[in-house]
């Protein structure tokens, strides 16, 4: 029996703008087991980052969690006060963001920034904090860590800055790390190194990780399970193998077909999904993907698809899984040579 570290139940988050209520997250439920890596994948505007910001209570002022429960390590943190949440953030749950330059303070040394959460959350002495900071920089593969402590973020390369961010996120031994597009700003080689580092650290420290990304290729090698989000809802969830080899949702098929194929010419590497995401000011009453879906049926325009169970851990919210629906399989793009995810979850 797996022990759950995080459970989200029926989360609804809206933004109140001058043009009306934007329903950014519309009933999201999922869980994460201890020691597991979960990928949350979807295009921008799918609600993946807003779901995480809702959990962490880091929404912009116009945002509000309207409904839902967040249970972390057995406690319902959605009922915590802001002060109680402050103790959780950066201590028990930490975040890694896309662009370390905007998350790191340019006028403070890397050492000061690493030691700050230790002093704040763990109340340890300056000497102990320094020792721990050196240890963490060395753990994330930064050479000469002692010397690097007194340097400023601009003295580090992009990949090294992301390593510093990872060291910062790990320094208080969090139970959960949420990495939001952790490698998007990096070139492909550095991206692979950072993902490898996260994988190594996860095994070494047994931390649970959620990786948010728009690129399914990024999560293939590191995640145990994947949730695919679209239009503020989870449209498919399953193990990495289920999503890569047995997907039962046309939106996931589109994402799979848009994973860069290294065997093709660079100009032809991506097959983007045509059309635009739904307007969440006026969400459709039927399937949010219907206007872009080549398999859309009449029912798709009229009713939100039920959550169909393909297996115990694999679910798809698409009417094609109804026993009365026509039998449809994923079509590969014409020029896709073969489906080649680097990994298939463990
Ligand atoms: Fe396409 Fe209908 Fe499935 Fe939505 S429910 S993804 S529109 S087939």
From TrEMBL:
Keywords, alphabetical: ATP-binding, Cell membrane, Membrane, Nucleotide-binding, Transport
Assigned GO CC terms: plasma membrane
GO biological processes: peptide transport
Family matches, as InterPro entries: AAA+_ATPase, ABC_Ni/Peptide_Import, ABC_transporter-like_ATP-bd, ABC_transporter-like_CS, Oligopep_ABC_C, P-loop_NTPase
Top-level taxon of origin: Bacteria
GO molecular function annotations of the record: ATP binding; ATP hydrolysis activity
Residues of the ABC transporter domain: 6-256
Pfam families in the record: ABC_tran, oligo_HPY
Compartment(s) of residence: Cell membrane
Membrane topology: Peripheral membrane protein
Family per similarity comment: Belongs to the ABC transporter superfamily.
PANTHER family cross-referenced by the UniProt entry: DIPEPTIDE TRANSPORT ATP-BINDING PROTEIN DPPD, OLIGOPEPTIDE TRANSPORT ATP-BINDING PROTEIN APPD
Name of the protein: Peptide ABC transporter ATP-binding protein
